[in-house]
Amino acid sequence: MLTPTLFSLFFAVFIQPSIEFARADVLPFTSYANDFVDPTYIAAGNFVNTSGEAQKNIIAWAEHLSASGPWSVTTKPIAAPSKDKHDYMSWAPYWWPNCTGVGNTTELTPQQIWVTCPYVNRDGQFNPDRLTINDIGGFFNLSDAVLYNALAFSFENKTSSIYSQNIVKFIDAWFLNNNTYMNPNLNYAQMERGPNGQVGTHTGVLDLKGMVKIVSGILILRKRNCTDWTTEIDTQLNAWTTKYITWLETNKLGTDECASLNNHGSFCFNQLAALKLLVNDVPGSVNTSNTFFHGIYQGQINSTGDQPFEASRTHPYHYRNYNLGAMITNARLLKYADPTSNPWNITTKDGTTIQDALNMVMTVDPNKSGEGDAVAEIYPNIAAVASEYGDPTGKYVAFLNKGFPEYPSDADFLWDQPLAGGSVESSASDPKTGTGSPGKSAATTLQKDSRTLLPAIGAALLMGVVAGW
Ligand SMILES: *[C@@H]1O[C@H](CO)[C@@H](O)[C@H](O)[C@H]1NC(C)=O
Ligand SMILES: *[C@@H]1O[C@H](CO)[C@@H](O)[C@H](O)[C@H]1NC(C)=O
Ligand SMILES: *[C@@H]1O[C@H](CO)[C@@H](O)[C@H](O)[C@H]1NC(C)=O
Ligand SMILES: *[C@@H]1O[C@H](CO)[C@@H](O)[C@H](O)[C@H]1NC(C)=O
Ligand SMILES: *[C@@H]1O[C@H](CO)[C@@H](O)[C@H](O)[C@H]1NC(C)=O
Ligand SMILES: *[C@@H]1O[C@H](CO)[C@@H](O)[C@H](O)[C@H]1NC(C)=O
Ligand SMILES: *[C@@H]1O[C@H](CO)[C@@H](O)[C@H](O)[C@H]1NC(C)=O
Ligand SMILES: *[C@@H]1O[C@H](CO)[C@@H](O)[C@H](O)[C@H]1NC(C)=O
Ligand SMILES: *[C@@H]1O[C@H](CO)[C@@H](O)[C@H](O)[C@H]1NC(C)=O
Ligand SMILES: *[C@@H]1O[C@H](CO)[C@@H](O)[C@H](O)[C@H]1NC(C)=O
Ligand SMILES: *[C@@H]1O[C@H](CO)[C@@H](O)[C@H](O)[C@H]1NC(C)=O
């Protein structure tokens, strides 16, 4: 399981977080490892009146992310080995060419190196050329942009807005437009190079885990009867998704990934369960989530609440939180697809739950494994667990207040409810209904009632963005 490429994904690709964006009045953008935001809850708009800051950040992030879109796999400078520019591609980032024995007499061009020289793993060391192609960075931005634009759209009592129009533009460019669409497969994801390479690896399926965020966003548009989200685009995206689901469930790369015992398997189920919701296959989604909870989940949390498949990694603090994010997302997907289900108290074979796993991670000092910068990764998991299991003793809120007192300004404070905290009330929207318009007015009044971020926390969150990938 613990192949080097698995963990190459840790720091695989990273979109330089934009430091300028970390202005004192806006939390630095956080890309959660994954999440499923209940579209019914968002569409109803009954947000707590302490979520004004979270809403402002969501709007600011939606606008910030949108500025770099639309994205398409066809813009990369190098096509996949299929020569089809519509094929998604990413390179395994810790693999380096060794041209020692190939017998060339003159210097090889990069293109010759990619196919001629054997590639060897140097774990933890990035090959600097890994960002020559950045389909993964484009997809990460796309998935966050769709989620945050859908949330920003929901804050307005409208059937069309700049935010929903952004989503249509982005979905069209990545999935549908005849010139720029992506083929519905991941045959060249986390590809190894060299004479024996040129094919994808199953770990590359993780690249598209953000499909869950996209599905959350589209379901919000549907629930709010968005007029920009036409029957035509809905039908086309469903057709694409149906083909991609078939690839995931029948291609060996997809089936191997969902059979992985660790976070890779958990995130693979995230994708499948969410995509089945998108194509209105609710029984199929329930089935997929149940397959997770009665399958690999059973071995993921032991009796002491630790996650053995993540604990053995070089970055155990990151990986424990990473898999927690995936397990939480699977629970949210199942609860949404089958409201009679109780994913939060499904126990593993050792009798433990997602809450036990979080409680265990809360006792871990990230500095012990040299992961002080990854501490920010636990906060979204704490907020999620506190909102689902309750916080009768206040220990979750105490932990958040200690390390991340700005947590009520973070986007997930909007949907991780009930959760204590938040003193800044939204003035621009009717908090009860969420139907006012914090949109433009909030964006222009950001300076007013917000607080200054400690630089250290800003840095930690930015690291969280990176590590979360
Ligand atoms: C916010 O909601 C709480 C209860 O949910 C209520 O006690 C408080 O008065 C509300 N504040 C405003 C400004 O509406
Ligand atoms: C590089 O290739 C040479 C020649 O094939 C081989 O002797 C050497 O061990 C390789 N180096 C690594 C790090 O694999
Ligand atoms: C073979 O190609 C590699 C990569 O371009 C280069 O570093 C090396 O110097 C070349 N060998 C010779 C003898 O030119
Ligand atoms: C993704 O968005 C960030 C801003 O958050 C930007 O700096 C980066 O260039 C974008 N990357 C791509 C591939 O669009
Ligand atoms: C939302 O818009 C609809 C249709 O324009 C209107 O009937 C309704 O009163 C509005 N709701 C609020 C809370 O403003
Ligand atoms: C899409 O592009 C292909 C090849 O570029 C072309 O043959 C086909 O007619 C186009 N389809 C549409 C609907 O434009
Ligand atoms: C969307 O349309 C449906 C069916 O016409 C209606 O029942 C529902 O109330 C509408 N939702 C919103 C948020 O307007
Ligand atoms: C549930 O999944 C199993 C395989 O895991 C499959 O055989 C069965 O047809 C699925 N049922 C539904 C309703 O999708
Ligand atoms: C749980 O897993 C951790 C990490 O692999 C291990 O150190 C611990 O001993 C395990 N606990 C039990 C009771 O097996
Ligand atoms: C899970 O929770 C539900 C209701 O919240 C309860 O009926 C059920 O007994 C619980 N199951 C376990 C195993 O604790
Ligand atoms: C980790 O180390 C940093 C800097 O050395 C320190 O500020 C932080 O409190 C430490 N974290 C824990 C949980 O001890």
TrEMBL record:
Name the Gene Ontology molecular function terms of this record.
lyase activity
Disordered as annotated region, ranges: 422-444
Keyword field contains Lyase: yes
UniProt entry keywords in alphabetical sequence = Lyase, Signal
- According to the lineage, what is the superkingdom? Eukaryota
Where composition is biased (Polar residues), the residues are 424-435
Q: Which residues form the Alginate lyase domain?
A: 72-363
Gene3D superfamilies, A to Z: Chondroitin AC/alginate lyase
Q: Which residues form the signal peptide?
A: 1-24
One Gene Ontology cellular component: periplasmic space
Tell me, what's a Pfam family for it? Answer: Alginate_lyase
Listed name of the protein:
Chondroitin AC/alginate lyase
Record the organism.
Answer: Mycena alexandri
